[in-house]
Amino acid sequence: MASNLGLICLSLALLTSIFLILSFTKHAIFKTDLNYKNFYFSFKISFFLILLAFIFLIIAFIFSDFSILAVYENSHTDKPLFYKISGTWGNHEGSMLLFILVISLYGFLFILFSKNLSPDLKSVTIFFQSIIQIIFLIFLIFTSNPFEKILPVPNQGLGLNPILQDPLLALHPPFLYLGYVGFSLLFSLLLAALVINQYDSRWASIAKRWIFLPWTFLTFGIGLGSFWAYYELGWGGYWFWDPVENASLMPWIASTALLHSILVMEKAKKLFNWTAILAILTFVLSLFGTFLVRSGILNSVHAFANDPSRGFFILIIISGLTFAAFVIFILKSSKEEKNNQSYIFLSREFSVLVNNYLLIFALVVVIIGTTYPIILSVLTSESISVGPNYYNSILAPFVFIFLILMAMGPYLKWGKNFFISIKYRFLNFLLGSIFITALLSFVLHNYDIIFWLGISCSLYLLISIIYEAYYLRFSNLNFGRLFSHAGFGLLIFAITLNHFFSKEFTAKIPIGESATYENFKITFVKSSSTKEKNYDELFGYYEVTKGNRTIPLKPSIRKYHQPEQFTAETSIKNKWFSDFYLAMDYSKDPSSGIGIRFYFNYLVALIWASFVLIILGGFLAFIQRKNEKSI
Amino acid sequence: MSPASKKRLNYFLISIIVFLIVGKFVLNSLQGNTVYFFSPSDLSKLNEKPNGLVRIGGLVKSDSIQKKQKDNIYTFVITDLTNDVYVEYKGILPNLFQEGKGAVIEGVLKDKKFLIAEKILAKHDENYMPPEVADALKKSGTWNKTYGK
Question: What angle do CA A577, A578, A583 make, to 5 degrees?
Answer without folding.
Answer: 165
